[in-house]
Amino acid sequence: MGSNSQFKAALLLIFHLLFFTLVSGQTVPSPPPPAFPILTCIINILSLAICAPVLTILKFLGIGNPNGLCCTIIKNLSANQAASCLCIAIKANILGINISIPGDIKLLLNLCGVTLPIGFACP
Q1: Is the pTM of this model over 0.70?
Q2: How far apart are CA 101 and CA 30, in angstroms?
Q3: Which domain holds residue 85?
Q4: C-beta separation of 95 from 89 below 8 A
Q5: Phi and psi (nearest 5°) for 55?
Q6: Nearest-5° angle of CA 94, CA 37, CA 54?
Q7: Any transmembrane segments, and where (predicted)?
């Protein structure tokens, strides 16, 4: 009878070792990555096409009209909304020009008296 109880004890020990090895081998799932902000624009981004010549002149000549139509559109938005709308317009190639992100966005927003939000980046 001694060997039977030793066999049961050995079998129980093997079962526990196997079970806890399998359980401890399981990893805790990592948390999901942070969600990227979804860009939205509350205006028709086609209206920002008027900003293309303004930005071109601003980039190459360093002059611009802060009271022009482009800035009027941008000033009616919050800083986040303006930056988001410009990002969408750039990604959709609405402006039709090569744009440096975030440099040219900041340049245009500064002309219009709007400060680019800290840490803002076009995703």
Answers
A1: no
A2: 32
A3: 45-112
A4: yes
A5: -70, -40
A6: 30
A7: 35-58
